[in-house]
Amino acid sequence: MTASVRRGRRPGAPDTRAAILDAARDQFAAQGFGRTTIRGVAGAAGVDPALVHHYFGTKQDLFVAALELPFDPREVIGPVAEQGIDGAAERLLTVFLGVWDDPELRPGLLGVVRGILEPGGPVLIRDGFLPAVVLPLATALGLDQPERRMPFVASQIIGLIMARYILEIEPLASLPADQVVAVVAPTIQRYFEMPLP
Amino acid sequence: MTASVRRGRRPGAPDTRAAILDAARDQFAAQGFGRTTIRGVAGAAGVDPALVHHYFGTKQDLFVAALELPFDPREVIGPVAEQGIDGAAERLLTVFLGVWDDPELRPGLLGVVRGILEPGGPVLIRDGFLPAVVLPLATALGLDQPERRMPFVASQIIGLIMARYILEIEPLASLPADQVVAVVAPTIQRYFEMPLP
Predict the structure, then answer these.
(1) I need a surface site. Which of A4, A111, A140, B184 has the fewest CB within 10 A?
(2) Tens of pLDDT along A93-122?
(3) Each residue of B114-161: pLDDT tens digit?
């Protein structure tokens, strides 16, 4: 992990950095996460692959940077996994709603959600965000068959974003975060632990 | 309920009908469901209010027609409620996935979902679809405090649409409908029946 995807000052010459990010977004959207390479992104941006590594770290770091989230989701999710499976859903939702309820962060997050419905957006989430961010959480929690469980976890979290922050359905949109957590955490915890059909 | 929102032949002169629907969509989007009136829509379309009633029935009928769904959601949801609260979530999801898994219906539904993120889209869902379609289901099921429960129901259903049909997250996207129902129905049933915080 590098500091480059955090909020605040970003290293590197702005033009070169922006060119790499543009190339990365194009390639992740066109080819998915798996088939995109640091070398290919570097080639499209006209820079040396070592410079991409220097600015952004690993391919996963580059992917998270290309999402242009207003924070690094792995820094947020890491502590959730460290405390083990008990209460993991409650911790995940508490952290998650804390981020979305932050008025400084929300505009950037809304932009990301709108991007999902643009061409290439579904690919970025499906082939990038899930394997780069969500599945590592499931693995760190020690879940069995995480790749079968996590789409259901994602479905409830994505729907909660849509209902509370995009559609602003009341009273959910105005409910204190702890009440939302009380209702939704058992759903997520069940998707973590339930026997699969 | 009228036949005008079903698939198939639609009554009324096409131009007049289209003008009424255009005016209705504008006004529902700009003012929400509550403040839109049949009289106001008729005025904007340059027709007599009686003609709007004649073509579309009630304001709720007009709203559902303006959504341009490829079916009338109330005809689908009605039988779910008639059999009572036991198993209601399982029946709702089975009907719901049956509609979405129909290759003839899905393109129209995807268009509606994309419209949610356009200007006015959230208002149509929040102030129209919920009170006109979803809350009547909750009322027919005899749920207490339906207006507090249904946003959570909506959150899981909207998220399931996004994950299975828009983002096409595997293996959820390819899972047989009955397996999806087995995983998600207990979530919805709990939102129907759980004690609220």
Answers:
(1) A111
(2) 998 898 889 887 777 777 767 666 666 667
(3) 666 666 667 667 766 677 677 888 888 999 999 899 999 999 998 999
What does chain B come to in residues?
Answer: 197
Omega prior to B14 cis, within 30 of 0: no
Exposure letters B77-104 (e unless 16+ CB within 10 A, then b): beebbeeeeeebbbbbbbbbbeebeeee
ipTM > 0.85 for the complex: no
Alpha-carbon distance of A3 to A54, in angstroms, equals 11
Q: Retrieve residue B43's tokens.
A: 């005025």
Which residue numbers of A have CB closer than 8 Å to B's CBs? 113-114, 116-117, 122, 125-126, 130, 147-148, 151-152, 154-160, 162-164, 166-173, 179, 182-184, 186-187, 190-191, 194, 196-197
**Cα separation, A31 vs A21, whole angstroms:** 15
The answer to whether the CB atoms of A159 and B164 lie below 8 A apart is no
